[in-house]
Design brief:
The complex is a heterotrimer. Chain A has eleven helices and eleven strands. By secondary structure, chain A is an alpha/beta fold. By secondary structure, chain B is α/β, with parallel strands linked by helices. Chain B has a seven-stranded mixed sheet with strand order 10-9-8-7-11-12-15, sandwiched between helices. A six-stranded antiparallel sheet of chain B has the order 4-3-6-1-2-5. In chain B, strands 13-14 form a two-stranded antiparallel ribbon. The longest helix of chain B has 14 residues. By secondary structure, chain C is an alpha/beta fold. In chain C, helix 2 packs across helix 21. The chains are: A alpha/beta, B alpha/beta, C alpha/beta. At the A-C interface, strand 3 and strand 10 of A face strand 1, strand 2, helix 1, helix 7 and helix 24 of C.
Chain lengths: 342, 285, 671
């Protein structure tokens, strides 16, 4: 990936609708939108629908990797792939999710030199994706991105990023595509005061996040402490799978066939390594029968194995897993305990 | 425009033969002539076969790559999809993706002795390399097979043992339990070579420098390797197939991820030394 | 939760972050709630059985046939020759319309639903003790309780969100007492875990009260001010007798006396305290007595009518609370107004446009009784919606024979074993395909909204019921929308009076309103009997003597079988076994057996065994596990091909007519 020298601009908030119109030319724009009393990532038509006021629980990964997806149909003895390419703009991605998309990009793309396999169902959408990040002014209860080095400000993996400075947005470009979009708006370069303000916002958000640990290099320490940590927290696990389903980097899935009579569909759907059935071995036993073993797998995968697989940790500190856990098992507690020695 | 790794090629079952009450041998040929002629694989690799409407399973290719124009699978009836394969006959259409995975390191063992130890249906996953080595007999040293099943009716490829002996393979068969008029060895396959006395077994000597390929149920592999190590075999020259873990075959679905490895990409063939390393990641105490 | 729809299909769910109870959390069944919706097995066309086989028919044909046959049966044999099973999975509106069909169109009180099989004893017991048969407090209050007593509920598996909250309450300092024969997950986190023999609950509950009164831990002021004193004195006399001392109770329950004392003192000393219970208390021949004893316990401690206290039965089906509230019960009109009360009957008759004298003024038959009556010929026509008695009824062996007798109409989303026996099968819409309201276990009425159109030719249940009524010459079951039905409910059911369609779809109440809600200005009620002012006035204590279960282990059938559920499947598995993810977790039935018992019988883990009771036999795989104590075995009942209910006892609780599913005697041998 070539290094791109980005620029920073200031955009008055009244120009936001023009900004959204410019994005619409790049594809279907998906942004956080009010639905009932929740914020969900939904396709939007105009700028007034966009709501940056809170961090949504909703997971934008479903736009490139849906919960259920049809792979192909077999009809009249012909296998027909059901690839959907779609030009998509994800507007308002938080830095943790931007980092997560980089993980998904590496995982589903050709990342292994020898027998690299590219998953076209995900990658066709990734290749046509415009990412507009939104830097977080305030954290949520379970956020710990600053410990994972992924936020609260996005530094890479996006085309454009926005920081809310009150009357203006600070707009940063990090790709050719981002630069091209912005050039049509004729924005002034950001002033040095505005750059400082962004830094202030970042510091304030970090302070509010109040995270007392740093996970850099955790993959080197984790083996010594993970057993005790996994056992301790797994005792409360009620095996809902939510921590994996809503994790923005989790990519495991299962496949099955649906016989519709006239045609057969092969579908794939989200799976979770916390489920015992996930670890089923041909022969009828389970690789990870005990819940503690599965919790260990989850922690090791996020905080060690993916460093081997594609060079980075795959926990971005978004806190979703902590939020959706019915047993109130918090990832930030587990990461802290792993670093501190169980 | 890169290829879509999830789309199977259509193939037809040319012959379906029952090997035991729960194992069927299928001879399969691709429908597309071009693929039929050019498709090849290395012994130890597996394919993802689809029984459309039921699902897809990874199965090690049982035949040798020297068999032209088609390949064979020995499938054990153990679940929904494999059961669907069991009710198939010649002429039925299936889907095939692959080959995937790595292979038995036959290419690094020219001139060496090779011993294959298999249990139950596991013989199907290493018959590929055995048959290949037989076809290239003069390139290798001593060839040996130690094979065991629970009862005589569960032994697979029984009509080939004599052929293999004639081709110069030292074939040793045993069953866990004697049934009816079985006159051969009785004992676990590990007892064929380990240090535990077994009265109804003719003991086998494995050449001390042999590369050993082990395939069978997880528990059998485990004890087999333990016994081989006890006898002084080098853990880097004992190879096993961990094929039971896989699902999509292309390293994406996550099911075969153990330790930092993906069985379908880094395996399914691993040396025992590598397996020990992976076991280290699995320990939870 | 929100449903994700793409190309007309539901492809996933999104948890609802702002929901006050779920807070964005879901259990595995929730995350995979969509997987069964588009199963190719969905019923999409009406079916009529001709010559022993199902033939597709038009709606007109099928509905006309049903109406014709039912009217004919009433003409020749009277209204009580018909029976109606409503569904706890259908909406409030649908349940209301179903009981209206039975009572107004066909003049029969033979209407019941599956609450009979699960919480009928709760409704009966708490009505008698408090005047209201529902969960007294709300779920989130558990987080602030100082002690929680969980009995007969494997909460982390069956109500995972609530189970998680109990675990969190524990983390916040609450004392947790778990009383369950099995070592369930929650027990591992408990301060005290007592393991009574299944079926001995009145004994230990009385013993608890015995200890509390002995130690002087009761709330004297609350007893004086809020309980019927005579009932309290009578109960106290019995409970204080030596047979309920912890030492004597140990002989019956096998709970060590010392532990029982410790648990009782711990619970009573930490207030506010909440009792959470479920099937382990209700599904017994002494089920109503069990519930009354729980009520006694909480009343004497003063743990009713205040924040974070209460008697909290966890209801199972998504709308079983609503089905009860809507009067899909043989003894109550909607709103728990008795059918035997002539003034209520007149009120309903007027609202429904029928003559009061023509209505049925006797209490009708319950589910198990209706099945038996079908077998004996007293019931000649049976209309079952969203219920699968062929797997869920006790003592299944006679169920099949009985259901073959009458003219059977089954309305469902899948072809269940019950539907297989039907003369007419009507395809219904799933939860994602209809509009209406559901009532949760904490009495909150909230909306369910259509995400996709009904599949194939299936229809929402209320439309089907209305059509049958129309063709039987009664127009009162046909409405233009569920909103119209709720409107009628608002007028006839005082506890729902202020829960209008407009209010529960508004920004003010995005997640519904909890009843009682008597007016349109009322915000709803979090906990009942506020301040100790019970619905019936004063709380009533009941004398409950422990009676042995009708069938205990003996030399021929030496094991005590208790049945139950697991986290991955739901009831008869019609939906969950069609979800690839849920089905993969547990594919088939099994029996949990203690390792010592297993080794004595030569049974290996995963070995196949035959389990036999006096009523039937099934073959399952053995799960050797320390979860069950010696002498007790456990079978999950979700699997139709190895139905645990082939073994269970159909002796009913005389009060609430609930079957004693939880105790019977079996023998086990290697297959």
């Amino acid at each position: 990936m070539t290094h791109f020298q980005g620029h920073t601009y200031a955009m008055k908030k009244e120009m936001f609708p023009d900004f959204v119109e410019a994005l619409k030319k790049e594809g279907m724009v998906v942004a956080p939108k009010s639905v009932g009393s929740d914020l969900l990532y939904m396709p939007i038509d105009n700028a007034s629908e966009v709501d940056f006021s809170r961090i949504p629980l909703d997971d934008p990964k479903m736009y490139v990797f849906p919960m259920t997806e049809k792979i192909f149909t077999l009809k009249d003895e012909k296998v027909v792939p059901l690839l959907k390419s779609m030009k998509l703009v994800l507007l308002g991605m938080r830095p943790c999710d931007v980092a997560a998309f980089q993980c998904l990009n590496r995982f589903f793309g050709d990342y292994v030199e020898e027998n690299g396999i590219r998953d076209p169902y995900v990658m066709d959408k990734m290749d046509d994706l415009t990412i507009v990040a939104f830097n977080c002014p305030h954290p949520k209860e379970h956020c710990f991105c600053s410990a994972m080095g992924t936020g609260p400000v996005a530094t890479s993996g996006f085309d454009l990023s926005l920081t809310d400075l009150g009357d203006n947005y600070l707009v940063e470009t990090r790709s050719e595509r981002g630069e091209k979009i912005i050039q049509k708006l004729f924005l002034p370069t950001a002033s040095s005061e505005e750059m400082v303000e962004r830094e202030e916002i970042r510091k304030r958000c970090e302070t509010e996040m109040n995270v007392d640990f740093n996970a850099e290099g955790i993959e080197k320490k984790i083996e010594k402490t993970v057993n005790a940590v996994a056992e301790k927290y797994a005792e409360k696990c009620i095996v809902c799978g939510g921590c994996n389903f809503y994790c923005p980097t989790c990519s495991c899935y299962n496949m099955s066939d649906v016989d519709r009579g006239t045609a057969v569909e092969r579908i794939r759907f989200w799976d979770s390594c916390m489920l015992r059935g996930f670890t089923w071995l041909a022969g009828g036993t389970f690789e990870r029968d005990a819940i503690g073993a599965r919790m260990k797998q989850r922690l090791m995968h996020k905080l060690s194995y993916t460093v081997v697989h594609y060079g980075t940790l795959s926990c971005t500190g978004c806190g979703r897993c902590s939020q959706v856990c019915p047993s109130y098992i918090f990832m930030e507690d587990m990461v802290r305990d792993i670093l501190r020695g169980g | 425009m890169s290829t879509n790794p999830y789309i199977p090629h259509l193939a037809t079952i040319k012959e379906a033969k029952e090997l035991t009450d729960d194992t069927k041998n299928l001879r399969i040929a691709f429908d597309d002539r071009k693929i039929r002629k050019s498709w090849t694989f290395k012994p130890g690799q597996f394919v993802e076969v689809s029984a459309f409407g039921f699902g897809e399973v990874p199965i090690s290719i049982a035949s040798s790559p020297t068999l032209q124009g088609c390949f064979e699978l020995a499938i054990r009836n153990s679940g929904r999809v494999t059961s669907a394969f069991h009710s198939m006959e010649a002429g039925d259409k299936i889907g095939v993706r692959g080959p995937y995975g790595n292979w038995w390191p036959y290419d690094r063992l020219l001139g060496k002795d090779v011993t294959v130890i298999a249990g139950g249906i596991g013989l199907a996953a290493c018959s590929n390399v055995l048959r290949y080595l037989i076809d290239k007999r003069s390139d290798y040293g001593e060839l040996q097979l130690l094979y065991g099943a629970v009862i005589p009716d569960r032994l697979v490829f029984t009509d080939e043992y004599e052929k293999w002996r004639e081709a110069g393979v030292d074939v040793n068969i045993t069953v866990d339990q004697r049934v009816r008029d079985w006159k051969g060895n009785v004992g676990l396959v590990t007892q064929l070579f380990n240090e535990q006395p077994a009265p109804e077994l003719e003991k086998v000597e494995i050449p001390s420098n042999a590369a050993v390929f082990v395939c069978g149920p997880a528990v059998m592999i485990h004890f087999c390797c333990l016994d081989l190590v006890k006898l002084g075999f080098n853990t880097e020259k004992i190879y096993v197939s961990l094929e039971g873990h896989m699902k999509c075959g292309v390293g994406k679905c996550g099911h075969c991820n153990i330790g930092p490895k993906y069985v379908c990409r880094d395996g399914p063939i691993f040396s025992h030394a590598q397996v020990e390393e992976i076991e280290g990641y699995k320990k939870t105490t | 939760m929100y449903l994700i729809v793409e190309g007309g299909e539901v492809i996933g769910v999104v948890p609802c972050e702002s929901h006050p109870v779920s807070e964005g959390k879901l259990c595995i069944k929730g995350w995979k709630a969509h997987e069964f919706i588009h199963s190719p097995d969905r019923l999409t066309k009406p079916l009529i059985k001709r010559g022993g086989r199902f033939v597709e028919a038009s709606w007109d044909e099928a509905l006309d046939l049903v109406a014709e046959r039912f009217t004919d049966i009433v003409d020749r044999h009277g209204p009580r020759a018909l029976g109606f099973f409503s569904s706890a999975r259908c909406t409030n509106e649908e349940n209301y319309v179903m009981q209206k069909l039975a009572r107004a169109a066909f003049k029969s009180n033979n209407i019941d639903h599956c609450a009979r099989l699960c919480h009928a004893s709760t409704v009966a017991g708490l009505m008698a003790a408090f005047g209201s048969g529902a969960m007294t407090n709300s779920i989130n209050e558990l987080l602030d309780a100082k002690s929680i007593l969980v009995t007969g509920s494997n909460t982390t598996e069956q109500h995972p969100i609530i189970g998680g909250k109990i675990l969190h309450a524990r983390k916040r300092g609450a004392k947790l007492i778990v009383i369950d024969p099995r070592e369930i997950q929650l027990a591992k986190h408990a301060d005290v875990h007592l393991r009574p023999l299944p079926g001995t609950d009145v004994a230990w509950l009385n013993s608890f009260i015995h200890v509390i009164l002995e130690e002087g831990l009761e709330d004297e002021k609350f007893i004086q001010d809020h309980l019927e004193s005579e009932s309290f004195q009578e109960m106290k006399k019995i409970v204080m007798s030596p047979r309920y001392s912890p030492e004597n109770t140990e002989k019956v329950t096998s709970i060590p006396a010392h532990d029982l004392r410790r648990a009782a003192i711990l619970f009573a000393s930490n207030r506010p305290g909440s009792v959470v219970y479920s099937m382990g208390i209700t599904q017994h021949v002494q089920g109503t007595d069990n519930v009354k004893s729980v009520a006694n316990l909480q009343m004497i401690i003063g743990n009713v009518g205040f924040y974070a206290t209460g008697v909290n039965p966890l209801r199972g089906q998504n709308n079983v609370q609503g089905a009860c509230d809507m009067g899909a019960l043989p003894s109550w009109f909607p709103g728990y107004q008795p059918v035997t009360d002539s003034s209520i009957q007149r009120k309903m008759a007027k609202a429904w446009g029928v003559r009061a004298e023509e209505m049925d003024s006797m209490v009708g038959l319950t589910i198990v009784e209706m099945v038996k009556a079908a077998g004996s010929g007293d019931i000649k026509g049976l209309y079952i919606i969203g219920e699968n008695p062929m797997v869920s009824d006790p003592n299944l062996n006679s169920t099949e024979e009985s259901l073959k007798e009458p003219f059977l109409v089954v309305q469902d989303i899948f072809m269940t074993p019950t539907a297989e026996l039907a003369d007419v099968v009507l395809p219904a819409a799933s939860f994602a395909e209809k509009e209406g309201t559901y009532t949760s276990t904490q009495r909150t009425v909230s909306r369910v909204r259509r995400a996709i159109e009904p599949l194939g030719d299936s229809k929402p249940d209320d439309w089907i019921i209305g059509q049958i009524a129309e063709r039987a010459w009664y127009e009162g079951c046909s409405y233009s929308s569920p909103a119209e039905i709720l409107d009628e409910i608002n007028r006839l059911v005082p506890i729902y009076a202020g829960i209008t369609w407009k209010r529960i779809d508004s920004a003010e109440f995005p997640f519904g309103i909890s009843w009682p809600c008597p007016t349109e200005e009322h915000p709803g009620t979090d906990y009942l009997h506020g301040g100790g002012n019970f619905s019936r006035g004063k709380g009533k204590c009941h004398v409950c003597e422990y009676v042995k279960p009708p069938e205990e282990p003996d030399t021929e059938y030496p094991f005590r079988l208790t049945t139950g559920r697991i986290a991955f499947h739901y009831h008869t598995g019609t939906m969950t076994r069609r979800s690839p993810t849920l089905d993969r977790e547990v594919r088939s039935a099994y029996i949990e057996i203690n390792p010592a018992d297993a080794s004595e019988l030569g049974i290996r883990h995963n070995g196949v065994v035959k389990v036999r009771s006096r009523r039937g036999e099934i073959t399952v795989r053995a799960e050797v596990s320390e979860t069950v104590p010696r002498g007790v075995v456990f079978i999950p009942w979700h699997f139709k091909e190895a139905a645990a209910n082939k073994l269970t006892n159909d002796t009913l609780d005389p009060d609430s007519k609930i079957p004693g599913f939880k105790v019977c005697a079996v023998k086990i041998e290697r297959a």
